[in-house]
Amino acid sequence: MATFAKAAIDEALRGLxxxxxxxxxxxxxxxxxEIVFKVAGTNVTERAFFARVTxxxxxxxxxxxxxxxxxxxxxxxxxxxxxxxxxIWGPDGTGAPGPAMAALLALDPAAHDLFRDYLARRDGExxxxxxxxxxxxxxxxxxxxxxxxxxxxxxxxxxxxxxGREAIAGGLLDEYGLMQAAETMIGPxxxxxxxxxxxxxxxxxxxxxxxxxxxxxxALQPSLDMTSHGRQVLALLAAAGQPVPARAQExxxxxxxxxxxxxxxxxxxxxxxxxxxxxxxxR
Length: 283
Description:
With 283 residues, this protein is mostly helical. It is built from 12 helices and 2 strands. Strands 1-2 form a two-stranded antiparallel sheet.
């Protein structure tokens, strides 16, 4: 592009989206998609390019959405063609196309609809930039804006569980302050409905259908244990027949798997006099 201006950037991004749609697998170097932009004769890395777009607040939202959507549509076939496990990598150990995804969220806070699919298509055990950096920066800038954002936050907690993240104490829902925001924005019944809806959708979505709905409810329960508002949500879910069993005061806020493992060790014949986990359980 001759200049770093909206029209030229839009044209470049739409051209890149077409290339990705038509031949993503051919653009990969093994498992990596590396994009370089030429601006006024100078090569610019994709990280620097999208950081500049974000800083200048250049409104290329539509072309960015087209780029991310094209990648998400083409990614499964490219992964299969290259015999990869879910992940296509970008620069510096980030997932592709991470800088573009971050720029879109910065320019359009409602773009969490595409961020859902981006998160779902990752190898979440190894690609953590999206959850640790992109998500952190997104919420720091945009906050939990509305009911749709709260619903996305529930989905994000489920993704963290799918990725294998374990929170022995405190749970997954409040990693970026979702529970405090939800308490001021929506009532317990509304949050209970959002949780049930997101879990129902999660367990039938291809690529996410690992484990059961029961596993997902138990993964979210420690977060809800921590506040009066959350415990009201749990009561409503239990009344609706969802698998959120009542727990002793000492177990509230703790991962269900951890509590069960501690109980098994406590029953073991060679139980230590003061096991390491006793302090967490208040014993």
